[in-house]
Amino acid sequence: MQNDAANNGQENTIPSWLACPLCRGAVSQVEDGFYCSEHDLVFPVGEGILQMLPPAEREDAADFAAEYRQRREEQGWRPLSAEELAALPEAAPDGGIDSTGPPVTRAFGY
Ligand SMILES: [Zn+2]
What we know:
Elements: E1 28-30, E2 33-36, E3 41-46, E4 49-50, H1 55-74, H2 82-86
The structure holds zinc ion.
């Protein structure tokens, strides 16, 4: 494993604290993410974000994200363009931010 301080934060550096969430063992960098040989699992990097959830919990997170998007759309929110994201926080839906709806919460047990 490489030391993150030795490479001055350049790509292909694995932070010393990064470990498999299941066994806390070392991971190695592979083309599409980080690999745990103990579990024969790849933790993917998607859109620049490392996804370290175990596979079963990825499904729970995907279900939660779908429910979250649906409720936000029902409240008048929609995906924002790059220009709209750059203009935040002025990109709230018409009428401003509605905080009266039920909160979308869910515990994942860790
Ligand atoms: Zn592991």
